[in-house]
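To the team - 1,3-dihydroxyacetonephosphate complex, inputs and output below.
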Amino acid sequence: MTIKTELQATIAELAAHGKGILAADESHPTMAKRFKAINVEATEDSRQQYRSLLLTTPGLGEFISGVILFEETLNQHNTDGRPLPEVAAAQGIVPGIKVDKGTLPLPNAFGDLITQGLDGLSERLTDYKNRGARFAKWREVYTITANNPTRLGIDSNAEVLARYAATCQALGLVPIVEPEVLLDGNHTIDRCKAVTEAVQTAVFQALHRHGVELEYILLKPNMVVSGKDCTEKAGAEEIAEKTLHQLRRSVPAAVPAIVFLSGGQTPEEATVNLNAINQLKQNAPWELSFSYGRALQQPVLQAWQGNRANAVAAQNALYKRAKLNAAARYGQYSPDMESPG
Ligand code: 13P
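Output:
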C-alpha cells in the first residue's frame, strides 16, 4: 500500500458519516485530576482498568470511528491478553495516539505557550505505528487575554503544528491538527471568533507552506463560544452561526472533516451545540463531527467510581453519550433523548 492510499483509507474510516472520535489521551497529571474527582488513585493499573472499560463498551463502534490514546495505553493489554489498540480495532475503531509533549511558555511572547515534542518525532511515530496507531494528534493552546495570543504566538504555534502534520503524513499517519483557543476568561463570543479566525488562518498558511495535503488531515478546533466568565453567554444558535461563519472564512474545502473538542463544555452543551451546528450547516463542505474527551467521559467516570461492579453502568453511559453525539452529527438530537429508557 502506498502512503497515500494508507492515508486515504484511514481518513475514510475516521470521517465516516454519523460517527465521531473518542479522546482518551489524557496525560498522567490530567488523568490523576479526573480520578481524584471520584476518589480513585491514578496508577498504571487503574488507568488500564478504566481505559479497557471504555474500549470494550459493547457496540461503541456504531458511533465512534477512532480513539485517541495516550502512549501508556498503546502498551497496555485487556484482561484477555489482547493489546488495547487491538481491542479498539476489533470494534471497528481506529486507534490513534497523542504525540505532543505538552506546553512551555513561548519566550518573548508573554502569556503565550508553545507545544514541545518535535525532536525525535519521526522515530516515535514509527514506533507508535508499529504498535497499531494509524493517526496522531497534536494540540496547541491559545489563551485569550487583552494581549494574547500575540502575533508571535499565533505564527510560532502554526509553524509547529504544520511541521508535526507534515511529519505524520510522510510516515502514513493521519494528523489531527488541534489549535485550541481556550474557554478560560471573560471575553465575548465575538472576541473568541476573531481570535479563532486568526489562529486557523495562520495554521492553514503554515500547512500550505509545509506542503501538507489537506485531504488527509482532520482539524480539531474549539467551537466559537463566550469565555467561561463572560457575563453574556451566547446560546447554541449564536454559537452555531458564529462557528460556521468563522470556519467558512478559515478552513479550505479540501479538509474532509472538522472534529470539535469539547474544551470544558458540559456533556449536554457539547451535544446541543454540535447539533445546532449541523442543523445550520447548509452546504458546508466538511463533515462536522466531534472528538470529545470530557464531554464523552464525564458521565462514565461518575457512573464508574473506580468500582468494577459499576462497569456496565459506566459503559452504558459512554454508549449513550456517543449515540447522542452521533445523532447531533445529523442535527437529529433533541433534549428528550437524554431521559433514560
Ligand atoms: P476535551 O473534549 O475534553 O476538550 O478533550 C479533547 C482533547 O483531545 C483535548 O486535547
